[in-house]
Design brief:
Blueprint: E1 5-7, H1 21-29, E2 32-36, E3 42-46, H2 49-57, E4 61-62, E5 73-74, E6 77-78, H3 95-106, H4 111-116, H5 118-135, E7 139-140, H6 141-146, H7 148-158, H8 165-176, H9 182-205, H10 211-217, H11 223-253, H12 256-264, H13 269-280, E8 288-291, E9 295-297, E10 300-302, E11 307-310, H14 312-315, H15 350-367, E12 372-373, E13 395-397
Parallel strand pairs: 1-2, 3-11
Antiparallel strand pairs: 2-3, 4-8, 5-6, 7-13, 8-11, 9-10, 12-13
């Protein structure tokens, strides 16, 4: 295998719903290829499904923040290497440290407990669909439905007052923007961190029936740890699912045969969610892993300290794993996709996200049998400027 050094991560898309074509070209010729990072680090890019799963499952590869070089620029500039993760920021930890925090949360996200939330999620969805109809044709489905539904769900789960959502939603948008200066990005995340820290202090004074209170009452965590765990859950709990509901609706509207199949057979909904997750793969930057020792991967020698960036969208469009991968097929056996990751860092909230998407898509299509775009697809503003892909807005008629 050749080791041509490619200049930075391909991010330029030619269509709204497909990943950058360059990723597919690399997957076909160099499923693990040399990649120059914006700060000059020479690491690797993985684009195949098999190698992506191998990387995510390999304990010799670290997720520690202080070892990572960013594969993308923010505000046109290389991103400095971050400091070690703060207490409770388990996403960027390894080993026993990561396992300790994750274990405290695992019981909160069991399939059984998530299923108990279904009636409340159905109620939230119904209320927002009624409000969407009241606004009339031309409504922005993101603002009216796709964003507020998961935001309200995660707020209730964590014990975040929903009326306080606007500030952290604004700061989340600023924090994930690739156009903002790095200082602006960090300032946005600092504001969210301070908000959650203040909220934890309030919870200690006035406990509730929510996840933040539950974490405090374990007696095993400092307030800083609880706040940082809550911060991760709050951001992930509304940002990713909201974008999947929005761009998933666009994908269905742009594939009328698949939309018709789902309308004709609502029992397809579970598989439809998995296929939409595979097809869209909204995590368009990373994840990144770092070699803790010399090792071999895909026939190449990885040196200790080398960064490996995974392309989730390329892995989920790998024809070796998913035949005819660029076609949306709601009947496809889509199990095995890596939209939620793989291995010990696999998304904790994936069952909640699946339930929210199933309920949202099913109710949306039932409530609006004539749902259609209100503008040409070329006028739908895509989130090409954000770390998490999707649609900024989705004007629809019904």
């Amino acid at each position: 295998m050749t080791e041509t050094l490619h200049s930075e991560l391909p991010v330029q898309r030619s269509t709204a719903l497909d990943p950058p074509a360059r990723l597919g070209e690399l997957r076909a010729t160099e499923p693990i290829s040399r990649l120059r990072y914006p700060d000059g680090h020479e690491g690797w890019l993985v684009t195949s499904h098999e190698l992506a799963r191998a990387v995510l499952a390999d304990r010799r590869l670290s997720n520690r923040a202080e070892l990572q070089h960013s594969p993308i620029r923010v505000g046109g500039q290389a991103v400095p290497i971050p400091p070690p993760a703060k207490p409770g920021m388990f996403l960027n930890m390894d080993g026993t440290e990561h396992a300790r925090y994750r274990k405290l949360l695992t019981g909160q996200f069991t399939v059984r407990r998530m299923n108990q939330l279904i009636p409340r999620i159905e109620q939230i969805v119904a209320e927002h669909l009624a409000a969407t109809r009241a606004q009339g044709p031309g409504v922005d489905l993101v603002e009216a439905f796709a964003l507020p539904v998961p935001s309200m769900v995660i707020c209730e789960l964590l014990g975040v007052p929903y009326e306080e959502r606007e500030a952290f939603q604004r700061d989340t948008r600023e924090g994930f923007s690739l156009d903002n200066d790095f200082a602006e990005v960090m300032a946005a995340f600092d504001r969210i961190e301070q908000y959650v820290a203040d909220l934890v202090a309030r919870k200690r004074e006035t406990p509730g029936d929510d996840m933040l209170t539950g974490l405090i009452e374990t007696g095993e965590l400092t307030d800083e740890e609880v706040a940082n765990m809550g911060l991760l859950l709050l951001i992930a709990g509304h940002e990713t699912t909201a974008n999947m509901i929005g761009i998933g609706t666009l994908a269905l509207l742009e594939n009328p045969d698949q939309l018709a199949a789902l309308r004709a057979d609502p029992s397809l909904i579970d598989n439809a969610v998995e296929e939409l997750l595979r097809y869209l793969s909204i995590i368009q930057i990373g994840p990144v892993r770092v070699a803790l020792e010399d090792l071999e991967l895909g026939g190449v020698r990885i040196r200790a300290g080398d960064n490996i960036t995974l392309s989730i969208s390329a892995a989920n469009r790998d024809p070796e794993r998913f035949p005819d991968p660029d076609r949306l097929d709601l009947r496809r056996p889509a199990a095995g996709h890596v939209a939620f990751g793989h291995g010990v860092h696999q998304c904790l909230g994936q069952q909640l996200a699946r339930i929210e998407m199933r309920v949202a898509y099913h109710a949306l299509l039932r409530e609006f049998p004539d749902l259609r775009l209100a503008v040409p697809v070329s006028e739908v503003p895509m989130r090409v400027d954000m770390g998490i892909y999707g649609v900024h807005s989705l004007p629809v008629d019904f």
